[in-house]
Amino acid sequence: MKLGIVCALALFACGGPKAGINETRMVFAPSLPENCELKLVQVDITAFEFNQTWEVLGYVTLLDRGIQDPAAEENRALVRPRACAMGGNSVAVAMNSASQSAMGTGSGIVYMVLRPKSWAQKPEKF
């Protein structure tokens, strides 16, 4: 994984606010305005309640040289319009990793774009 981040940084070494920005859509939902209000939430994807409460619309990945802060305003400004375009109203940090090698330091942050499930309900007894 760390080698993958370093290789991606080498490929995206030129231009832009980040070394690389990737969007992955899992569900196609109606877009929200580009500057929609997003909540930064903490979730446990291994918990049963996660799948009962949240729908994962997609992921936004930011790759960069150096160490990144997931809550930095620069990152929020890049993630917000992409998450809103996916129809999300919340984001969670799915992964935050860093790597250091002879080529330098690089990091990757994966934001999970979420919205509450409209049918969310408590499970019934079987």
Q: How would you describe what is shown here?
A:
The chain is an alpha+beta fold. The protein has one domain. 24% of the residues lie in helices and 36% in strands. It is built from three helices and five strands; from the N terminus they run αββαβαββ. It has helices spanning 2-11, 48-53, 73-86; strands at residues 20-25, 39-40, 54-65, 90-101, 104-116. A five-stranded mixed β-sheet has the order 1-3-5-4-2, sandwiched between helices.
Kindly name the structural category: alpha+beta
Largest sheet: 5 strands, mixed
How does the overall form come out from the CA principal axes?
globular
Please tell me how large the radius of gyration is: 16 Å
Keywords for this entry:
about 25% helix; about 130 residues; alpha+beta; about 35% strand; single chain; five-stranded mixed beta sheet
Question: Helices, strands, pairings?
Answer:
Blueprint: H1 2-11, E1 20-25, E2 39-40, H2 48-53, E3 54-65, H3 73-86, E4 90-101, E5 104-116
Parallel strand pairs: 2-4
Antiparallel strand pairs: 1-3, 3-5, 4-5
Outline:
The protein is α+β, with helices and mostly antiparallel strands.
